[in-house]
Amino acid sequence: MTVLNSGIDPTAADHTAHRAAMLDKLAELDAEHAKALAGGGEKYVERHRGRGKLLARERIELLLDPDTPFLELSPLAAWGSASPEYAVGAAMVCGIGVVEGVECLITANDPTVRGGASNPWTLKKAFRSHEIGLANRLPSIHLVESGGADLPSQKEIFIPGGALFKHLTQSSAAGIPTVAVVFGNSTAGGAYVPGMCDHVIMVKERAKVFLGGPPLVKMATGEESDDESLGGAEMHARTSGLADYLAADEPDALRQARRVVARLNWRKAYADPDPAAVAEPKYDPEELLGIVPGDLKIPFDPREVIARIVDGSDFDEFKPLYGSSLVTGWAALHGYPVGILANAQGVLFSEESQKAAQFIQLANQRDIPLLFLHNTTGYMVGKEYEQGGIIKHGAMMINAVSNSRVPHLSVLMGASYGAGHYGMCGRAYDPRFLFAWPSAKSAVMGPQQLAGVLSIVARQSAAAKGKPYDEDADAALRAMVEQQIESESLPMFLSGRLYDDGVIDPRDTRTVLGMCLSAIHTAPYEGARGGFGVFRL
Ligand code: COA
Q1: Is the pTM of this model over 0.85?
Q2: Which of 36, 60, 75, 379 could form a disulfide with 394 if both were Cys (CB 3.0 to 4.6 A apart)?
Q3: Rounded mean pLDDT, 350-361
C-alpha cells in the first residue's frame, strides 16, 4: 500500500474560507436543482395529482429496487435557455438506477411541464441518454407521458428528433433491451416509442397511443372515433397487439416493468467487486469542500482530492519527478482499477503532455479505465515553449486521449480552459461520464485574458487604419466581455447546455464515480493495443 499523506488542516483559515465559498455555491446549486424538482410548478403538479397520477420521480422511485440510489443525469438541462425559456430539467428526468438487480438507464417524461412535450433541450437530453445506454450497454426503460413535439419549437426538433426512434431500434439491434411503460399521452411521433421498444406495458384507461387523435382522423378521413378505440390500452392489449401487458394502474405498470426486467436474463460483462474488500479513503470527504480555492488562480494539490476519493487513499504515482504539473498514477475506486490524470499547477508543458501520452498508452495496454481530474489553464504559450515543440507534444496527448479505447471519466474540479480541456478528455472527447464541481469554470480561456486579447486586437486594428483608439469604450467593452465570458464559463450554464452530465457536490464524487464505474462494467471493453494516430516525436 502507498497511502497518500495529507497536508490539510481543516481548521486553517484558507481551508475554512474555501469551504465557505464552496458551500455558498452549493446553496445556489440546490436552488436550481429545486426548480427541476418542481417541474411545471404547483398548479400543474396539483392538477396531475388530482387526476390520480404519480409524478415522474415518484414513478422512478417505485420502479427502482427499494433503498437503492438513482444517479440523476443532466437535471439542469435547459438552464439559462432564453427566448424562449424552457423549464430547468427540460421536461424529462433521466438517470441510472437498479431494477431487479439490473442497472438500467431510465427516462421519464415530466407531464407537468407543457404536457411533457419535448423541446430542443429534451431532445439533447434524450440523445445523451441514448449515448450512455449504448456505450455502457444499459437496458433502457422509458416512462412515457408526453404531448410529443413542443409545437412552437417544432423547427428545432422535428427533423433531428426522428433519431429518437432510430436510437431505440439500434439499441434493440445491438441486443440492449428497451422497455416502454405508457402512462398517458404518446401521440403521433411519440407512438413510435412503444412502437420501437422490445417490451411494452400500458396503463388501462390512461395510455393513449395513436398516430392521430380523433380530431386529426376526422380531418383526414372523416371517420368519427374516440380515444379508447383509437389508442386505448385495452385496444392495444386485445386488438392491435402493440401492448404486451395491460396494467390496472400506475403502480401495477411499474410492478410489471420490474417483472419484465427480472426476465431479461441480463448479465454484466464483469462481476461486481466484493464490497467487503473495498477500503474507504483514509481522509474525510467533507474536507473536499475546502480544497479548491474560490480564486482559481491559486493552485491546489490534486493529491488531496485523490486521497479522499480512492480506495484506502492508496495511490501509486507514475513518473512523480517528471512533468510535475500533471499528477498521474494508479489506484482503485470502489474496487475498480483506475489510472488518474490530475492537473497540479494548472499549466500543461511539453513534459506533462508526453507523460500523459505514455500513461494513457499504459492504461490501454493494461485495460484500465482513466479518470481525468481537471484544473488546467491550458497548454503553455510563449517563444521558449513553441520552440520546444509544445504543439506537437500537446498533440501527442490529444492523440492518445482521442484513440484510447478504455472508458474515460472526467471531473471538472476547477479551471478547464483552452486545449487543456480537450487533452484532459473534455466533452468532445467522449468520456463515458463527465461531471463538474460547483467551483469549475470552462471556456476557451479565462474571462480577463479573453477580454484583453479582444482589446489588443481592436487596438491593432485601429492603429492599422490610422484611427484614434477610444480608451473609455475599450474599458467598457472589456468589462462587458469579462462579465459575459465569466457567466458562460460557470457550471450551471454549461450543464444547462448538456456539456456535462451534472454538477455534483464534491463530497459525492466517490459515490458518483463508483456508480459510473459499475455501470461502465456492464459492457466489455479492451484498451487500444495500437491504433493511435501518428505521434509527432
Ligand atoms: N407543445 C407545446 N405546448 C404544449 C403541447 C405541445 N405539444 N402540449 C401541451 N402543451 C401545453 C398546453 O398548451 C398547456 O399550456 P398552458 O397551460 O400554458 O395553456 C400545457 O402544455 C398543459 O397542456 P394541457 O392540454 O392543459 O394538459 P393536459 O394534461 O390536459 O393534456 C396533452 C396534455 C398532451 C394530452 C394535450 O395538451 C395535447 O393533446 N397536446 C397536443 C398533443 C399533440 O398533438 N402533439 C403533437 C405531437 S407531434
Answers
A1: yes
A2: 379
A3: 98
